[in-house]
Amino acid sequence: MSVRVNGAEVYLLGTAHVSRASVAQVRALLAPADDGARGFDAVAVELCPGRFESLTDPDRLNRMDLFAVIREQRVYVVAASLALAAYQQRLAEQFGIEPGAEQRAAIELAHERGLPVLLVDRDIGVTLRRAAANLGWWKRLNLFAGLLAGMLSRDEVSEEEIERLKQGDVLETTFAEFAEDRRDLYVPLIKERDQYMAARLRQEIAGGGHRRVLAVLGAGHLAGVADALGAAAGAHADPAATIAALSHVPARSRLWRTLPWLLVTSILGVFVYGFTRSPALGWNLVWDWVVINGGLSALGAVIAAAHPLTVLVSFCAAPLTSLNPTIGAGMVAGAAELMLRRPSVGDFGSLRDDVTTLRGWWRNRVSHILTVFILSSLGSAIGTYVAGFRIIGRLVSG
């Protein structure tokens, strides 16, 4: 399918992510023609810089800075990325072809011919955060739980999923498998990325002066990108403005930003009120808060098989971090576990394979630290509400 964009021709090749035929199509289009008539002067691929590096640099995981991941609270994005890798590993084992093989072939052939490779997809972290923002908190929790289960699943990919992969997008298929309502995911995973990739193609054509571009895209994006490129409104829109708008991660509403501070103020107010009634009651309220909040966070660390000192740190940190919305118990517990059990180069190297099994998930020190972060955070979050109800109940009954 060809589309004219500002005097340039963009040839859109729709591919299936698990098809050898798609790899053959890419090779046929980029193979040197006898008459030299093909004339592509650039190759665009459905990859962001992060996914490009993962595809072309197998050692990229070895350089992951876990301290930065924990400090910047990117643990859930990393865990979701591992879910995608685990799902792709299942596909590789079932079909004997690595998902994204057609993208890899396009990159290799472009390099052989000295053609620039254009990375036109949106950053996967932005896509995941916008997808999460499009879901209610309950669906978000169900989705994340499903992703964790999917990482450990050894079931074969169903025929229905295979057909979706042939006709659609690997990100959508991976995450839609665990979503109750795929319409919530369609906009951030498909529609927005169609618009983003069209804007990136316009931007690259205008900036690079390309006259004939081969764009290798998943079949599910073909119609959407073609429509966005061919739309009259899109032809006059500023690509940079479109890219900036679609790269913006929506901030939480004022209510959700204010709620943690209201909770902290309420808990501290309850402590003060308890002490004004009697010192004994006040200390009982503080004791309930420390034991329940710290105990459930420590329990999460125990379930994650954390180091005994990490369990103790979780118990001590959770009652305090729950009164400070800027830092979480998981951050403290994850950092403690990282200092006590530093991952080796081998842990990073085997991470993709290890996270596909329950034993490997707990054995690998990289995924183990992520687990400690997640479960200690979850324990503290539950403990905050359980302890809150407990101390209010004690006041009412007292």
List the main descriptive attributes of the protein structure presented here.
alpha/beta; 69% helix; 7% strand; 398 residues; five-stranded mixed beta sheet
What does this structure look like?
Helix 10 (183-208) crosses helix 11 (219-230), helix 14 (254-277) packs across helix 15 and helix 15 runs antiparallel to helix 21. The radius of gyration is 25 Å and the shape is elongated. The chain contains 21 helices and 5 strands. Strands 1-2-5-3-4 form a 5-stranded mixed β-sheet, with helices on both faces. 69% of the residues lie in helices and 7% in strands. It is α/β, with parallel strands linked by helices and 398 residues long.
Q: Approximately what portion of the residues adopt beta-strand conformation?
A: 5-15%
Give me the strand/helix succession.
EEHEHHHHEHHHHHEHHHHHHHHHHH
Order of adjacent strands in the largest pleated sheet: 1-2-5-3-4
| Average pLDDT taken over every residue | 80
The helicity comes to 55-70%
Largest sheet: 5 strands, mixed
Shape: elongated
How many alpha or pi helices? 21
| CA(first)-CA(last) distance | 75 Å
Low-confidence stretches: none
Radius of gyration: 25 Å
Short description:
This protein is of the alpha/beta class and 398 residues long.
Fold topology:
Layout: E1 2-5, E2 8-15, H1 20-30, E3 42-45, H2 49-56, H3 66-71, H4 75-95, H5 101-112, E4 117-119, H6 124-133, H7 137-152, H8 159-167, H9 170-176, H10 183-208, E5 212-218, H11 219-230, H12 232-236, H13 239-247, H14 254-277, H15 279-303, H16 308-321, H17 329-340, H18 345-349, H19 351-354, H20 358-363, H21 365-397
Parallel strand pairs: 2-5, 3-4, 3-5
Antiparallel strand pairs: 1-2
